[in-house]
Each structure stands twice: as structure tokens, then as C-alpha cells.
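Why Putative ABC transporter ATP-binding protein? Reviewers of the renewal asked for a concrete example.
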Amino acid sequence: MVLLQDSKQAPPRDVVELTGVTKVHPGGVRALDGVSAGFGPGTFTAVMGPSGSGKSTLLHCAAGLDRPTSGRVVLAGQDIATLREPKLTAVRRAHVGFVFQSFNLVDALSVWDNILLPQQLAGQRPDKKWARELVERVGLAGREKARPGQLSGGQQQRVALARALAGRPAVIFGDEPTGALDLGTGREVLALLRRFVDEVGATFVMVTHDPAAAAWADRVVFLADGRLAGELFAPSAQQVSARMVELTR
Ligand SMILES: Nc1ncnc2c1ncn2[C@@H]1O[C@H](COP(=O)(O)OP(=O)(O)OP(=O)(O)O)[C@@H](O)[C@H]1O
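Here is what the prediction returned.
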């Protein structure tokens, strides 16, 4: 995991840095329009904005799932905006973890094999000691042999979180990671995410529609019409809601 640097040293470089990122989708929709934003190591950022404001597009461009039309995206020290396949996939597999709303676990594999799968796909030797620690940290010790279908939604998302962290990625992106969970279970998953940021220095960037979920972040970045529309630091859910009301007016 990323170790936070001594405060006397220069501030740590952002693990992901977008500069003037514009994305025009096929059909001419300008989903992002000159967005510049950085995500520092050991930080938890929520990305919010009205429907269609460009949140998913931002996440996809920052994670190397999509290429911007123009601008730079530096991920773990490499400009990925112009990188072609299969190099882009290699960078993504080495440095990025994902947590999705729908968990995206492989039902034919056990919990343990799901957690190790991304490292195996990346051709890395799985770090089993770290994977065991992750299973414990997410509260699933003893359930390693279970299939995802035998687990509750909250447990499945905890497996997905362990899977995202198993390769010690520079950054983890979450697309509505609590969107399919009930309130209490969602809160448990967010508390876990928060602990991974605070205790092991993980870097987490999450798109959400939920002000209560965003309030777990250190920083909330707002988008409107594909442009940055301000940010709030360690806000309450009420402050996030108030800002969203302003943006949707
Ligand atoms: N693959 C695509 N092809 C064409 N247009 C797209 C594509 N993906 C997104 N768009 C358009 O780009 C704009 C931004 O979409 P995006 O999904 O990034 O917004 P969002 O803020 O994540 O929305 P939501 O909150 O509804 O998920 C929208 O107008 C959308 O219709």
C-alpha cells in the first residue's frame, strides 16, 4: 500500500491526475469538457453531480477504461490517455482496483479464487498472506470456500473490496459501490472503505448519487454539464445535499 510521506517532505504526488480532459462520445455528446483534477495517495474522494453530468465518463477515463478525446491522464506516473491496448490493460491491471454496484464476482469461483483472480489475470504471483489478511479485515474468515451466490449482498461487496485491494493497486475506483445495498449494509461497506484508506493508505475514488455515502469521503468533487462545479472537504450529508440541490436547480 502507499505509505504517506513525512510532512517535512514535498507533498506526495497524486496517484491519478487529469489535466484538461475532454471526452466527446460517439454521437457528439461532450460528456467531459476540460476537467482537471488530482487524487492524492491515501485519500477518499466522492464524485457527485446530476444525472448525465459526466461522473461515469470521468471514472472511466481516470481508470483507463475509456480514452479521453483530448487531455492528459497520468496514472501511477504514466500518461494513459494515449496508451493503446494491450498496454492500457496492463497498466490498469497493475495499478487499478474496481468495485461495482453489482459486485461483478465470478459465481463459478470460490470467495478465495475471486479475490486472487485479478492478480492471476495480470500474470502476477498472488500475495496470499495479504489476501488472508484482507479476508479477515472484511470479516469473511471461514467463508473462503463459499460461492458468491451463497453470500448476502453486503458479504459479496466485501469480497469485491478484498479483490480490489488484493493486488495493492495505486487506486481503487468505485461505481456506486453501495447502490445495490440496504442502508445499514451500505454503511458497513463504507465504514470498511474508510478504514482501508485510514489504516493501510488505500486511495479510493467513488461515484455516488447518495449524499450520505459521499459524507464518508475526505473530499467531494462536483460535476455539472461535464465541468467541475466545486468541491467540499469532509462535508456533512446535509452540506452535500444542499450543493446538489443548487446544481440541479
Ligand atoms: N458510450 C456513450 N455513448 C454516447 N453517449 C454517452 C456514452 N456514455 C455516456 N454518454 C453521454 O454522456 C453524458 C454523460 O454521461 P455519464 O454516464 O458520464 O454521466 P453520469 O453523471 O454518470 O450520469 P448518471 O448519473 O445518470 O449515471 C450523458 O449525456 C450520456 O448520455
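The chain has one domain: 16-248. This is the kind of structural detail the renewal will allow us to pursue systematically.
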